[in-house]
Structure formats: structure tokens, C-alpha cells
Amino acid sequence: MATTGSPTGPGAPIGAPTRISQGSQTKGGIGESTLRPDGVLKVTGEFAYSSDMWHEDMLWGHTLRSTVAHAEIRSIDTAEALATPGVYAVLTYDDLPTAVKNYGLEIQDTPVLAHGRVRHHGEPVALVAADHPETARRAAAKIRIDYAELPVVTDEASATAPGAPLIHENRDDHHIGHVAHPNIVHRQPIVRGDADAAAARADVIVSGDYVFGMQDQAFLGPESGLAVPAEDGGVDLYVATQWLHSDLRQIAPVLGLPEDKVRMTLSGVGGAFGGREDLSMQIHACLLALRTGKPVKIVYNRFESFFGHVHRHPAKLWYEHGATRDGKITHMKCRIVLDGGAYASASPAVVGNASSLSVGPYVIEDVDIEAIALYTNNPPCGAMRGFGAVQACFAYEAQMDKLAAALDMDPVEFRQLNAMEQGTLLPTGQRVDSPAPVAELLRRVKARPLPPEQQWLAAGEAADVRALPGGLSNTTHGEGVVRGVGYAVGIKNVGFSEGFDDYSTARVRLEVINGVPVAVVHTAMAEVGQGGVTVHAQIARTELGVTQVTIQPADTQVGSAGSTSASRQTYVTGGAVKHACENVREKVLEIGRRKFGTYHPAWATAELLLEGGKVVTDGGEVLADLVDVLEDEAVDLELEWRHRPTQPFDLRTGQGNGHVQYSFAAHRAVVEVDTELGLVKVIELAVAQDVGKALNPLSVLGQIQGGTIQGLGVAVMEEIIVDPKTAKVRNPSFTDYLIPTILDTPTIPVDVLELADAHAPYGLRGIGEAPTLSSTPAVLAAIRNATGLELNRTPVRPEHLTGT
Amino acid sequence: MRVNFTVNGRRQEADDVWEGESLLYVLRERMGLPGSKNACEQGECGSCTVRLDGVPVCSCLVAAGQAEGREIITVEGLADYAKHRDEAHPGDGCASGSCGTSLQRAQRWRAGGTDSGTGEAGELSPIQQAFIDAGAVQCGFCTPGLLVAADEMLEHNPSPSDADIREALSGNLCRCTGYEKILDAVRLAAARQEEAV
């Protein structure tokens, strides 16, 4: 049984993670729904999240953020703040210790603290450390900043207009050479075949302009952590992040410390969904800790969290498709404009995804595609679950319904007629070389019986308003309520793409403790809730034939695991754990051969496995107990593992084997709409998804259902509203930015396919993102089906349905 | 100021409390009980739900001084609370140790493996065990608040319909699960409770 929260010595912080041990009464290997090893800690309140870190000597850090979106900073006066009793430090740009004053995932364009200018609402300008969070907040309010406001650019027209202010002057990043304007971060065209010639063959052509609103990850655990200054001049940092080593690469140069003096440990992470790929409070807490010589804790509140991380890119998309009378798509042209906001974050990679996945899971040979991301004064946008593929799916699925309607065909049959499959050549020239059961996924969601009509009457005489649009607001008892059904399917890449060296590292140790063989797994993988720790224990049991597994806390004492994003961790760090286990097994068998090889010929001739704590032949004959093979010896290996390499997309044609693996899900949405008030209730969201191999079926269902509801959120409620005149965020709270509650969510029946990908460990397919793609367009299609409205933007608000 | 109240059956005292501090802050930062969570600190998410004299409240919206002399149950005390409730009113609630026997009947929620690391029988309250068994825990940040709210609902409504569950838990946001497994967990806890009576 694991514990957290015990100090390991004087001055140690409370809440530092410790190893978690998990036994199993069954084999507990892959394919079983073993339970989370951190489950008990999480239901008893003992699991320590980054905001739970505590030190008896700690100070509280607070970040002062800009109140305007675009301004020159003429002066900053910190004297009064610094003189406040209880305040230990006030830091501004001038206090940064080295020449490195910016950070960023790909382009280092984000100031640690603003220098002379702020480019978006909520940009960090100054830091305060004090003995109480309220003291820090009040002192920060005494910092006087003289802003001279500048005009804002908020969309493509204003960002590229003659004389538009440049968000970043003197750009020298590697994208500036191929963009038409310095306020464009990156551009990725894809051209294949001849779209114009193909269009001439089309019997019908449909086009549309689509708008996708700005979505927030809205993870529940706020940005937070504790930085503890160390005697060697370094710092120990406990944080919630998605990728420890990426953080480390960005933090250390700003602090002027070698990477081995910034020791990072993953604290408990309360969800991520892409919003923790970029740094938030990491450098700030370290700067304050190093300045004051005291541990510093920073915890954002929800208001600040809305400014503390990037959001999903809002997008404007134009699509044109054509088809012949017999229902075959002739061509596709599209232009996708993503608003990246003030700093680059993950915008270049989001552009690559949006462009390369813009065609959807369909066979279309003649395409003309362009995707760009803008620099504007809007909030910075970057990674969120689905990463560029979400916005495209919303638009191309609307187009599919329009095409089917123009041809008077069934929308599912039309999609199936054009569905890609294994062997299809994508517009990038990449051939899909593993199962792509697009038509089958659609067949499965369509074949499901529809939920009964008018369920609000099922309970008896009086209408149960909880089953109606408007719910407990008691706005209708069924009057004006109409039902609609809609379908959508999507394609998402798995893993980091475009030639990125996407590897992971695992250290695995096998030893005998108290007469029991135990596998110890140590990686730097960020467990953000997805259940990677569960799966690592399962892999170790499967490969090493043990039941007892210990998971070490994730930290930078072991090599990089890469990011917990892009649906990649089970594939890549799971693959690394499997690889390390296989090598440990070989070492164990070598020891066995050395000790016992002469007693049985099978040691030399048979295929040997580790099962049930024993060395066995593939025929099942037991050769030795692991306990006797290992005795007091431990086998301990740290190894890197890589998936197949990818290639960059050609900057002119978009050609290249850019992606590692593809992931597919299909949804059927059933909605009921109160047409008088414009209120929507989603009754059911059925999903079918191919997962390759479900390593933990229970966790797979959790990922699919959770992803589906994030898609529902951006269909009917979730949007960060940015004032187009001031570029200021108008709803940074859970009062005004609504995420689905349990009353807003439908039943979510899931149909899981397991068609193995021969290239992936155990045949698995990354699953986390695909369900977020098709959920949104399926709900939109169902609302269109119910109302007959065109609805080219998401989220749908009541006024879009009532026309008021 | 100084505040005194009872947390999970123990008298607690905190000194030097600033008058603006919430009950949540005092629990987390002054009493070493960070189980109640701080997801929004504005009464919208329910992650800080505790029981104040039996009533579920968002502890972020309760000033610490308002808790003076009152009884508070947090997630850290939930297992003991459920146990005592059952001893006082057998069959009324789902007692630790007397529940958890309906695994076969609840097969559709039941996971395949049984892990010693996920809790010895008797350590957890039935709702806590059900959350683990049903896969209702992912990142877990909403879990403490949901457990307190769900436990309170089952106390007065031992056989809730799905609509009852949704209504009772509508003040608790979860971003990971899509709520399906949370519904499963509450149904499972209720089923085990019925089985135990």
C-alpha cells in the first residue's frame, strides 16, 4: 500500500509522491481491466496533487497579469508592493537572471515576464512572493503599471492588413521564410492531383464557411506547484505537467542552471487535455524560490487558470467538395485559418495536423488544401485534445451531409461509399498500412436501436422535466420539442509527426523482495488521469510473469518519456516499458542458463517465457522459479524506444509520410431541441471506435466516453468569448464558461473494435483523441436534422436556433 | 482570529486565521487535510464539497469563521463516517465490510483484476470502493467532492433512479469521465447496499 504526504526528512515538502505498489490476484496483465494503482489514494483524499504540496517554511507566489491585450509598458513601479509587510520579493523582467528571457515549445517567443510590451490580455508582468496568498494578491494590486494601449489585431483581415502592427518584429524562426506575412506563424499547403479539373467532372458541388469557437481544456486541477531551493544552488520543482523533460529544457536556461540542477518531479495532475504542454507557473515559482531562498508555492485560481494556459485554436474554415451522381467524391478544396493568438505555442504542429487531416477519413484523389495559423492579440492557443483535427472534422462532416443531401442519398451510406480503408493513399502521399475500418464503424453506430421517443413521459403521467431540454428549469413539458439524429466520423493521427524524434525511455528492475519477485517500473511519463500507470503495471506483469509491480514516481532522474499527448503514451512509453521488460527478461534467462542450463536441455533449445513467477518453456514446462534464478541479484535496465520514423511535409506540396498511426471513431447523436427557446438536450451519443488492442478495457471506455463529452461541450455550450474590439476575455470562470454537468450528458454506449496494427506494441492504437473529433459534428448534424437549420458554427447557442 | 470546529470527529483549532479565509483554505493549508479540492474556488465545480453539520456545502464558499463550533466531514473521514452510520443505524447506510458482496450481480461494472493495491476490504466506504471498481476515477480531482455528495444522496435515497443521481450530482463537475462511470459507480454502491440489507 502506497503512501504520500510523509516528509522524508527535515525540510522536505509534504505531498512529494512516493512509489506505488500493486499486487494482483489474477495475472493482471494486458487485456484485463485491472484497477488503478492510485485509485485508493484518489478516493481517500490522500493522493497529493500539485496544489496540495506544502512546506512549513513556504511562501506563496502570485502573478500580476496585464489588464489590456496590447500595450506598450511605459513604466512599472513596485516600491509600494515591496514595502508591504509579509512580502519577500517582487520580480519583473529586469530581475531575470540570464540572457535567456523567453521560452516556448517550438519557437521561443514567449516572455517569462513582459518586457516593454504586452501582446494579450492576462500576460504575466510581475511576480510577488509573500507569507500568505492574500498578502501576495494585495501587494500585486499595488504594483503600478503605466500602459500605453496599442491597436489590436484579432483576425486574419486585421492581422494581415496594410500597416497592421506586427505581433513579433524581427522574426527569425524557421517558418518566417514560407509565410506571406509576419503575422502568420506557419502555412502548410497540400496539393495532390488537379482539383480544378476534377471539379469539372462533378455533378454537384457544395461549399461552406464554418466557424469553430475557442474551447478551453478546463482541467479541474489548477496550474500549481512547489519550488524548493536546494543547497547546491539548484531547485527541486514539484509540478503538474504533461512532459517533464520538455519543461526542463525550457526552464533551466532561463534560471541559468544546468539541467541536472533543476530536479523535476511530477506531482499529482488534475487533468491536462493539452493545456499543460506549455509552461505556466514553473519558471515563476523557481525564480521566486531562488530569489528568496525559501520554498514557493503557486496555485492559480480558476480565473487565473483561464489566462494561465493556451486554448484550442478557434478556426474559420472554407470547404468545397464535389461529387458525381453515383455518390463518389470528385475533389476537395479547403482553407483553414487557425487563430494562434499572441504566442506560437504549438501552432505550427496544429497547422500540420489540420492540413494533413483536412480531407477526413475519405478517399479523395484531387485536393487543394491550405492551413495557416495567425499571430493576433487574442489569447494564445495551442494544444488541446484533437489538435487541429477537431476543427477540420467539424467542417468536413458538415460538408458530407450537404453532399449527401444534394445527391438525395443517405448520409451514412454516402460516407461509407467514400470511406478510406487500409491501403488508401492519403493526400500527403502516405499509404495507410494498418486497419482503417471507417465504413464498419459507421455501420455499427447506425445499426444500434434508437432510444425511445418522449422519454420524459416514460415515468408516468407528469412529464419528468429532467429528461427534457431546459431540464429542471421547467421550460417545457414537451411542447415545441423535436428530435434529430446525426452521424459523423473522424481521423486523428497518433504520436508526434512530421519527422519529430518521438521516443520514450523506461527503466525496469526485476528483483526478489521478501521471497517475491517484484518488477519496478520507472518512467518520466506524466500520469494525468489517463491510466498510464495502470497499463505500465499490466505490461510488466505480462512480460515478466510477476504479479507484484511497483511504479516509481515520474521525475527527471530517468530519461524523457515524451509528452502525454497526441494519444501517444500507451503506444510509446508503453512500448518503452515493453522493450525494457523484454531486455530484462533476456538478462534473467541468461542468468538462468548460467545457473541451471546444465540440468535441462530446454534452457538451450526452447523458447522461454516468464509466467507465474517461473521460467517456463513455450510448451508450459516449468524450468525454474524466478526466486531461485535471481536470488539476491537484481536486473536493472534503462532503455529508449522509438516508433517508426516519420517525415516532414513538403512545404509546397504537403507530401510526406508525416504520421505514425491513424485512429478512427464514429458517433451517432440523438438530440431533442426545444425550438421555441433554442435549448438542446443530447439524448444519446453512441460511439464506435477501433482501438487495435484494448490493454485495459475499463480505461478504454473511460477515455472514449470522456473524449465524447468534451466534443459535446464544444457543440452546445463551451466557448471562450473574446471581445473583438479589445481582445479581452469576457468569461474566465466556470460561471460563464460552461462545461457539461452530469445533467447535460447523455448515455454513451460504446462499441469497441480491436483490429490490430501490426506495427504497434500489442497491436494497440492510440485512442484518447479520436472520440473528441466526431462527437461535435454528430451533435451538430442531429440539431440540423431536428431543426432544418444550416448551423455553420459551433458551439450552437439558443439564438442560433430561434433566430432571435 | 482563532477558529474551532470538529473535523471528521476530531476537535481542531486554527490560529492566526485571516477573516477572509474560506473553510476550504483552512482545511487544506492549516489543518493538513488537502483532500477537499480547489478546482474553481467560486462554488461552481463541487470539488471542495464537505458536509457541514450533515449538509453538503462548497467549502470554498463558507467563511472559516462560519464553521465555528460545527461538525465537518471531509473525504478523509468518509470511510469512518459511513462505518459509524451503519453501526448507529444498521441497514440505513452502506457499511464498510458488509457491502461489496454483490460483485457478481454487478458484473457489468466489475473489472477483471482484483488488486491488493487498490484497497483492503474494510478500509474504504462503499461509495469509495464503487468509484474504484467502476472506473469512475481518472485524474481524480473531482472525486473527493463527488464521493461526499454521492454518499449523502445514498443516505437519504438508497435506490436512486438515474435521473435522481444526475440531479443530486449536478453540482459536481468532472472533465475526464463523461460521467458514465460515475453513474455506474453510484448504481454499483446502491446495488451493493441493497444486497447487504
UniProtKB/TrEMBL annotation, chain A:
Q: Where is the composition biased (Low complexity)?
A: 1-18
MF terms from GO for this chain are: iron ion binding; oxidoreductase activity
Q: What is any Pfam family matched here?
A: MoCoBD_2
Record-annotated Aldehyde oxidase/xanthine dehydrogenase a/b hammerhead domain positions: 44-151
Cross-referenced SMART domains, in alphabetical order?
A: Ald_Xan_dh_C
PANTHER family referenced in this protein's UniProt entry, alphabetically: XANTHINE DEHYDROGENASE (PTHR11908), XANTHINE DEHYDROGENASE SUBUNIT D-RELATED (PTHR11908:SF157)
Protein name per its UniProtKB record: Carbon-monoxide dehydrogenase
- Origin species: Streptomyces scopuliridis RB72
Automatic annotation (TrEMBL), chain B:
Keyword Metal-binding on this protein? yes
Give the transmembrane ranges: none
Q: Which residues form the 2Fe-2S ferredoxin-type domain?
A: 1-78
**Superkingdom in the source lineage:** Bacteria
Which key words are in the record? 2Fe-2S, Iron, Iron-sulfur, Metal-binding, Oxidoreductase
Tell me which SUPFAM superfamilies the record gives: 2Fe-2S ferredoxin-like (SSF54292), CO dehydrogenase ISP C-domain like (SSF47741)
Q: Output one GO MF annotation.
A: oxidoreductase activity
Protein name per its UniProtKB record: Oxidoreductase
